[in-house]
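Lab notebook, bench 4. We co-purified these components, and the gel suggests they stay together. Before we commit to crystallization screens, I want a quick structural picture of the whole thing.
Request: model the full complex, all chains together.
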Amino acid sequence: MATRKSQTLDLAILGTLKEGELHGYELRKRALSLIGQVRSLSYGSLYPALRELTERGYLEVDDRAALGIRRGANPRARIAYSLTSAGKEHLNSLLAESGPKEWEDDSFVVRFALFSQTDLRVRVRILEGRHTRLVERLETIRESLSRGRERMDTWTLELQRHGEEAVEREVRWLNELIDNAKTEEKEMNK
Amino acid sequence: MATRKSQTLDLAILGTLKEGELHGYELRKRALSLIGQVRSLSYGSLYPALRELTERGYLEVDDRAALGIRRGANPRARIAYSLTSAGKEHLNSLLAESGPKEWEDDSFVVRFALFSQTDLRVRVRILEGRHTRLVERLETIRESLSRGRERMDTWTLELQRHGEEAVEREVRWLNELIDNAKTEEKEMNK
DNA sequence: GTTAGCATGTAAGGAGTTACATGATTTT
DNA sequence: AAAATCATGTAACTCCTTACATGCTAAC
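Here is the predicted assembly.
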């Protein structure tokens, strides 16, 4: 029963289903509007994931729709999935995490897209972690630029320079978001 | 003898080896300074790839270094790889490609980093293809923004907005590069 | 004398995609 | 009546990472 360990896909699915029950096809479109910027989501990974989440007890299927599942019967029978209470709990525990994994590219975007369901303090921790990660990346780029200034050809240099700029912009963006979040935090504590 | 079809890794290896013979460990560092912004390169994928490229006749190993390969003997014997003439040909044929695959994120960055080894006309085609791809992405983002303006929460909106800006910047960057390349092209034709 | 870096490799697993199969419904 | 889109699913394959195994050499 190979339990997948990919939490970003689980999170995208569970987080999208929070709003209400959906069938796979529609779920994919909604989820893509959340995370489509950075990830794709093919049926070949979506449907097995839905089945597995159901087996783990996090999702339940709509009974009436499920009657028509048998292959060959009515293949158009939509199967509506919704969160069970265990699923909601699992979603909440995933949303509470804010470790190093959560500030990696893919995971961060999914987590960010679900910020409306995320506790303010966790939000701040994720934003700050992401910030740290990007500052590290900047340092690596700058080191590489100062080390190899002469050895590098025009194009490698240009690529690094452009990459540096992109990361710098994202750092500034994060600074704004962190400031906003901290202001919000202070106002709540009053 | 499962032949890998991953051309970006092949290209990164062959392109890095163009400058002269290198052993795996050193090759990895050089290749990472080219493509490290966008890809990692673990030993678990590097060494099998080197072996496979050797089997395909694109690389040859330094004889003296190779004598010590036998496991258990001298594990520190470095194995220096260099391009064979078939390898150089293969590299050139990879560098001549400029189809849709070449304007995808990962592939594009590797191709860009090797622009000094790439024909001017191919360079222009790749830059323009990349441009087209990004403009398409912009359209998708903008559609999604105008469709779901009300349905979307603050964070999804903010994410899309930030993504839009990042893509816009990259489009402007490409415009400059394309202009430069076209000027260069005209001057060559005089 | 121990940590860090040099150096090569394998086995197992993870996270997906592509191509296929199937067929209903809506739009052109 | 053809084409697009809706809808679900599987098998095979791709590409890469992690964890392990091994041991040298330089620096602190």
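Residues 7-97 of chain A form a domain with the Arc Repressor Mutant, subunit A fold (CATH 1.10.10.10). Worth comparing against the SEC data before the next meeting. The helical segments of chain A are 7-17, 24-35, 43-55, 63-66, 85-96, 105-113, 120-147, 154-188.
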